[in-house]
């Protein structure tokens, strides 16, 4: 795979949960492909330490953006785009605490509400089956433009490899402009634009789909992903 | 893609809903690759007419199986494996009416409980988010071995083309033996075994995922499918 980036817009992305594996990995990919990232954490120092790790990997990368760390609210204030990469436990409270800052921003949720038991991974039931983490964020931060994306991209590959991942990022949302941001950013991960997968409510499917991939990973000892076939990328 | 079939077991498959596009298309693929199919319908004559159409396409195909039609209960009685390819409306009642015959058989559900409104396709909420069509079938026909598979394979390609489809069939179920049947049969459609996607409850994800593919199809004017990456097929 060639390292060309389809996106031409340079975004500043705050990564809430930026010290976790998914946030750090996605942030790294965004910065590697020319976007600026502000990793957010409850404690600024922790975010700064991880940002330093990311910055180290950007040295000498042609056209790379920048990485820095900040407390969550400061990270959001510095960005046009906010990636929510936090565990589902505590998600609603965290979004509520940041809702003022999220107003007017594009918020990309990759939050996967999963549960695990003896039978493996499965989706947690939200709002009696009529909700999802992304829809909860949209409800709690009504002045943000919330989209769902990057649910099914496994963290180990994001951080552990340099090549584009052989999979697709499916983006859902009720705002075409909001979806376009995630579609652009997906190119930093896969080398091609994200795939518009429809309305925000379909996050109810993308979020628990990760449980299927986890099951496949266990069975086949691999890191699986999804590709959408039939598209002319 | 080459027309080799990975499966060596020859199954007799009753296709309930065998006169609908999904059932007819899957039945045709199974028969084309050496399995025997009995298309089932409420009226035997209708099933026989569609079976004749399928048989016509099997003429001269090396190693093809046979296709015939029958009333649903007779189709089931003649088969080891039953494919449920019926609309979700009326699904539970139909399964209840056939439950005695299904006892002891492997039942593969490809039923997609979808709803459509102005905002597009989306999954219907079953049992407050804790159920799926496949789980309903398992509950209603407790002596059958129910697995879920073939949810995301689009009918037009099944009937309209002869080549293997460039996608994967994900199989879920609580019985390894039951899943193996669907994994084998998947090779008739994709040229490679189906992918074991975990427990039956994950049908809650595979069934509404079809709504995502329908949204993609509308947006990109295509017939999309899923491929699982990271597998060494």
TrEMBL record, chains A, B:
<protein>
    <submittedName>
        <fullName>NADPH-dependent F420 reductase</fullName>
    </submittedName>
</protein>
<dbReference type="InterPro" id="IPR036291">
    <property type="entry name" value="NAD(P)-bd_dom_sf"/>
</dbReference>
<dbReference type="GO" id="GO:0006740">
    <property type="term" value="P:NADPH regeneration"/>
</dbReference>
<dbReference type="GO" id="GO:0016651">
    <property type="term" value="F:oxidoreductase activity, acting on NAD(P)H"/>
</dbReference>
<keyword id="KW-0560">Oxidoreductase</keyword>
<dbReference type="GO" id="GO:0050661">
    <property type="term" value="F:NADP binding"/>
</dbReference>
<dbReference type="Pfam" id="PF03807">
    <property type="entry name" value="F420_oxidored"/>
</dbReference>
<feature type="domain" description="Pyrroline-5-carboxylate reductase catalytic N-terminal">
    <location>
        <begin position="12"/>
        <end position="113"/>
    </location>
</feature>
<dbReference type="InterPro" id="IPR028939">
    <property type="entry name" value="P5C_Rdtase_cat_N"/>
</dbReference>
<dbReference type="InterPro" id="IPR051267">
    <property type="entry name" value="STEAP_metalloreductase"/>
</dbReference>
<dbReference type="InterPro" id="IPR010185">
    <property type="entry name" value="NpdG"/>
</dbReference>
<dbReference type="GO" id="GO:0070967">
    <property type="term" value="F:coenzyme F420 binding"/>
</dbReference>
């Amino acid at each position: 795979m060639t390292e060309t980036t389809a996106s031409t817009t340079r975004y500043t992305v705050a990564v809430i949960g930026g010290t976790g594996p998914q946030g750090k990995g996605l942030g790294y990919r965004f910065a590697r492909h020319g976007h600026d990232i502000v990793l957010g954490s409850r404690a600024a120092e922790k975010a700064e330490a991880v940002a330093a790790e990311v910055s180290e990997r950007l040295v000498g990368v042609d056209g790379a953006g920048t990485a820095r760390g900040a407390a969550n609210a400061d990270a959001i204030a510095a960005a046009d785009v906010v990636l929510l990469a936090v565990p589902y436990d505590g998600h609603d409270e965290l979004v509520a605490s940041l809702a003022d800052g999220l107003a007017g921003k594009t918020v990309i949720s990759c939050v996967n509400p999963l549960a695990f038991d003896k039978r493996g991974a499965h989706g947690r039931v939200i709002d009696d089956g009529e909700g999802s983490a992304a829809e909860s964020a949209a409800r709690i931060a009504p002045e943000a433009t919330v989209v769902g994306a990057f649910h099914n991209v496994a963290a180990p590959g994001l951080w552990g490899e340099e090549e584009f991942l052989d999979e697709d990022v499916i983006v859902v949302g009720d705002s075409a402009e909001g979806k376009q941001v995630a579609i652009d950013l997906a190119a930093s991960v896969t080398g091609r634009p994200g795939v518009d997968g429809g309305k925000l409510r379909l996050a109810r499917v993308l979020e628990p789909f990760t449980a299927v991939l986890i099951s496949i990973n266990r069975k086949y000892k691999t890191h699986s992903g999804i590709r959408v076939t039939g598209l002319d990328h």
